[in-house]
């Protein structure tokens, strides 16, 4: 139990998973600034992952992030390069698909960003994103987010 809590805490620190909002509520000067929401993370294929949504007016862009699940021990060698498959999917509640990006990547120790799913949606819509990472012997356990587009 303690190990799981420490691993989860380390993953949260490694990914910086505190929700991020680029435009403070009620700030007229930054009303047009995009809002970035990164509110969900998870461990997949032995790596820390999170999915983010950037909303600007009626435009939405999703991104997936892959990082180490925790800091390496001092003096330890870098992790072996690992081939992973990353799948980022976006949709509008109600079934409209915004797209899917599928990439095969080699991960070693540097954070990796997966982008490519974006679209324009009606104001008042709710959009959803899913980010799945798998590797040999490690099935995907997708992280998801759901964001209202308030314009």
Short structural summary:
This protein has 151 residues and is mainly beta. Helices cover 9% and strands 50% of the residues. It has one helix at 2-15, and strands spanning 35-44, 47-56, 59-67, 82-92, 96-107, 112-120, 126-134, 143-148.
Summarize the topology.
Blueprint (H helix, E strand, L loop, with lengths): L1 H14 L19 E10 L2 E10 L2 E9 L14 E11 L3 E12 L4 E9 L5 E9 L8 E6 L3
Antiparallel strand pairs: 1-2, 2-3, 3-6, 4-5, 4-7, 7-8
Which features would summarize this protein structure in a list?
151 residues; mainly beta; Immunoglobulin-like; four-stranded antiparallel β-sheet; 9% helix; 50% strand
Explain this structure to me?
This protein is mostly beta strands. It has a single domain, classed as Immunoglobulin-like. It contains one helix and eight strands. The strands form two sheets. Strands 1-2-3-6 form a four-stranded antiparallel sheet. Strand 4 and strand 5 form a beta hairpin. The longest helix has 14 residues, at 2-15. The relative contact order is 0.22.
The CATH class is identified as Mainly Beta
> How large is the radius of gyration?
16 Å
Number of folding domains? 1
| Estimated structural class | mainly beta
CATH topology: Immunoglobulin-like
**Adjacency order of strands in the biggest sheet:** 1-2-3-6
Helix content: under 10%
CATH homologous superfamily identity: Immunoglobulins
- Average pLDDT score: 83
CATH architecture: Sandwich
Low-confidence stretches: 1-29
The gross shape turns out to be elongated
Order of helices and strands: HEEEEEEEE
Terminal CA distance reads 43 Å
- Sketch the major β-sheet: 4 strands, antiparallel
Beta-strand content: over 45%
Number of helices: 1
How many extended strands? 8
């Amino acid at each position: 139990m303690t190990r799981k809590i420490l691993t989860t805490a380390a993953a949260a620190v490694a990914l910086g998973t505190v929700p991020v909002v680029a435009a403070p509520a009620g700030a007229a000067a930054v009303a047009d600034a995009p809002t970035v929401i990164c509110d969900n993370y998870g461990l997949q294929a032995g790596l820390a992952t999170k999915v983010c949504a950037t909303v600007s007016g009626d435009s939405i862009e999703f991104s997936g992030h892959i990082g180490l699940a925790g800091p390496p021990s001092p003096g330890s060698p870098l992790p072996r390069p690992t081939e992973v498959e990353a799948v980022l999917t976006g949709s509008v509640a109600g079934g409209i698909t915004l797209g899917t990006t599928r990439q095969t990547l080699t991960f070693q120790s540097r954070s990796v960003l997966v982008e490519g799913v974006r679209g324009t949606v009606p104001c008042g819509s709710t959009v959803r994103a899913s980010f799945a990472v798998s590797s040999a012997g490690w099935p995907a356990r997708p992280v998801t987010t759901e964001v209202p587009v308030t314009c």
